[in-house]
Amino acid sequence: MNTTIQTMLGHRSIRQFTDDAISAEQLKAIVAAGIAASSSSMIQATSIIRITDPEKRTALAHLAGDQAYVKQAAEFLVFCIDYQRHYSISAEIKPEYTELALIGAIDSGIMAQNCLLAAESMGLGGVYIGGLRNNPREVDALLNLPPYSAILFGMCLGVPAQDPQQKPRLPMDMILHENEYQPLNTRRLAEYDQQTINYYQQRSTHNKQQDWSSAVTATLSKESRPFIAEYFHSKGLMEK
Question: What distance in Å separates the CA atoms of residue 137 and residue 234, rounded to the nearest whole number?
Fold first, then answer.
């Protein structure tokens, strides 16, 4: 197994950081790794906004659900769908199509993961901040986003000040299907649920009695940001 795969398999979300800075050279390499990621038809529909203003960091931490690490991390990056750049080139483009929003979201996710892996390969850590979508219009206004661009998520980066246990993932045979979709293997699910119960009971902080099935049921059975579609429509995206 090579070091790249070892870095990937060792991933953990980091939410506590030291006061150490990320050097300019490190940040440049991290962003360059992101830019090098795959892009559908070379459309390159992502922009990254680096937040260095302390007041904006504080505001974003609050808008993301009072997540203090947004303010404390050495770097905070916001990833956005961006078709304003393309529209500035030609008014003939059609950013209102949902397919283009999907391309922008997929490309942004790939770019962000490249950034995070690059950071982790340097001994840094990070965590994604989807909570920015709790208040998308307020975040959008704070970052002065133009039409045909929209916020997706943020990313904290810094030197880890914690060493959390790694959360167990679904077993590969529940995710990897061959030739056609396979029905849920309830026996394997029960085994995985027990594994997650054991994890939550044994981890060093925030112990709880919960399995994966009940956790995702609680998450997915409630209202989930019903205002998101309207937000994207207001930016000229996902109208068709």
Answer: 9
* Amino acid found at 233: H
Between strands 125-129 and 149-158, the pairing is antiparallel
Give burial (CB, 10 Å; 0-12/13-18/19+) of 76: buried
pTM above 0.70, yes or no: yes
Cβ contact 49:78 at 8 Å = yes
231 found inside a domain = yes
Q: Are residues 140 and 25 in the same domain?
A: yes
Domain that holds residue 179: 172-216
Q: Kindly report, residue by residue over 192-215, the tens digit of the pLDDT.
A: 999 999 988 887 666 678 899 999
Q: From residue 202, give the alpha-carbon distance in Å to each of 12, 136, 151.
A: 16, 36, 36
